[in-house]
Amino acid sequence: MTAHLDPAPWALPRPHHHSTGFTPSAKPLPLEAREILDRLLCGNLRHAAGERMATGMTKSRVLATVLTCCDLTPAPEQIFDTAPGELIVTASAAHLVDTAALVGVEYGVEILKTPLVVVLAHEPCPIINRITADIQHGHFPENHCRAVAEQLVLHTLAAESNLSEITRRHLRASIVRLREASATLSGDLSTERSSLVGLSYNTRDRLVRQIEPHPQSDSLDAVTSAMPQTTR
After folding, report:
1. Rounded Cα–Cα distance for residues 34 and 28 (Å)
2. Average pLDDT in the 15-43 region?
3. Please, which residues bridge with residue 116 across strands?
4. How many Cα atoms occupy the beta-carbon half-sphere of 69 within 13 Å?
5. pTM of this structure
6. For the chain, where are the E strands, in sequence order?
7. Domains of the chain from N-terminus onward
8. What is the pairing mode between strands 87-92 and 116-123?
9. Residue 68 phi/psi, 5° resolution?
10. How far apart are CA 60 and CA 175, in angstroms?
11. SS3 assignment, position 20
């Protein structure tokens, strides 16, 4: 393994259990979900090293459901070096948990029976960076981009100008929102039919890192009260 891959936390010797990443008291991943996550992370190591699996690779099964950002480049299938069809991917602006996102995730969980759901952020994220800059200058979007701004405002206040921390807080909050908004996913999580993790792809070193749970201050219950009452 090349030296520049060492900083990835999962490239070092790993404990037997991994955090699911969606609550401060997350349980270890079930065996099947953990094996799928390990497979995705190993594929990302190949991607970061500029390697690919042998051509002609065919789909074994649908491994994971992925909710990601619509301006993520490259595609999740490339980031994880998976065969076509092994991931079911839904994308929204800054992985916003909206109706389309919920439909995609619930289809993967309920119909395709994927044992793993991934919310995949990326750093830097142009959408988050631009809207965060607008918030910091006192401007709130008047169009549908306001939906993202409403979710980012609390993180912007808490993390000041640290865009990396804002992005990670937003990822954790998307995980919380996804779990709370989908009774289907929440039920599968409680029975361990599916597991939910948060990952962030760094476009500079091309590595994916798992974002660990954070205290409940990441919850966005206070967003409405923190929002400006009028746009400027």
Report:
1. 9
2. 70
3. 64, 195
4. 24
5. 0.78
6. 64-69, 87-92, 116-123, 195-202, 207-210
7. 27-52+59-223 (3.40.1050.10)
8. unpaired
9. -140, -175
10. 27
11. coil
